[in-house]
From TrEMBL:
Phylogenetic placement of the source organism: Bacteria, Bacillati, Bacillota, Bacilli, Bacillales
Keyword annotations: Membrane, Transmembrane, Transmembrane helix, Transport
UniProt name for this protein: Peptide/nickel transport system permease protein
Membrane topology: Multi-pass membrane protein
Transmembrane segments: 79-107, 119-136, 148-168, 206-231, 273-292
The keyword Transmembrane helix appears for this protein: yes
Presence of keyword Transmembrane helix: yes
Alphabetized SUPFAM superfamilies for the sequence: MetI-like
Intracellular or extracellular location(s): Membrane
Main localization (coarse): membrane
Domain of life: Bacteria
PANTHER family: OLIGOPEPTIDE ABC TRANSPORTER, PERMEASE PROTEIN (PTHR43839:SF3), OPPC IN A BINDING PROTEIN-DEPENDENT TRANSPORT SYSTEM (PTHR43839)
Cellular component terms per the entry's GO annotation: membrane
Amino acid sequence: MVKNKKLLLGGSVVLLLFLLSLCYSLFLHEIIKDPPNAIYDPGHRLVDVPPYPPDRHHLLGVDRFGEDVFWKVIDGAKYTLMIALVVSSMRMGIGLFGGILTVMFLHHFTFFIDSFIRAFRFVPAVMVAYIFFAAVKIDPDIPSQSLIAHQLLILGFIGGIPLTGHLATEMREFLQNDFIKCSQSLGAGKSWLIRKHILTFLRPRLIILFTRQVVQSLLILVQLGVFQMVIGKVKELKILDGISASGSVTLSLSNEWSGLIGLSYRELMLDQWIVLGPSLAFVVTIYSFRLIEKGLEETVEKNKSFHLFQK
């Protein structure tokens, strides 16, 4: 597995990004100097004020509030990655439990369950998430931890339901094998089939599916960001720049990437580099997880071929 270049490259990028984000939160933010509040020429005349375009000192520029966009993206990396990993884990748990429950214990209701799952697939996931996110945010006094927990559960169930159908289909096909029939005729019960056959069969597939779910979780975060729906609470900041009609802007508390994109939508017509930073971070991270997925698929196929050759 470690010899697969795609797996190594993708995993290294994700790990480096996460570790750099942790280091920034722990001590780098105290070492790195903040961008200047204003730039003056040698004659002490005002030349420029934030936002500043990208240069060699600030790779992704400086936003309207005088913060380095590159380090904001780095700071938000750990939160974005943890959200995607937690949501993907929840989806896998829901999908696996739901698939086993459907195939092994609720097979008499297969038609109704499959019909519900098929109907659910016709509704864009981002629209379902948007509706539930809006409902959760109705209460302004909800604690931040409760809000985040509700939002993660929503994203988990939205992806877990279609995954239930996918895994249930794979399990049904697997249970049609002759050796499963022989095992049942010899007295194997449902718990034995689940532990010794189904989970053994699904184990390599679950690892690949997990990385695929991470990619899908990141994509839905991007889409929610476009609708200005972010994970966790936000803060209102007064600004007198003649641009904001309300005299205030909404900012993410965690620098989570979807928040950096969605809550900076007005910058698309002004200073595009402010949105470019988190957008590039999403692209690089999604591509890295796709490399991990491809590397895992190649490794699993290689191991299959090796075992067949040995036999």
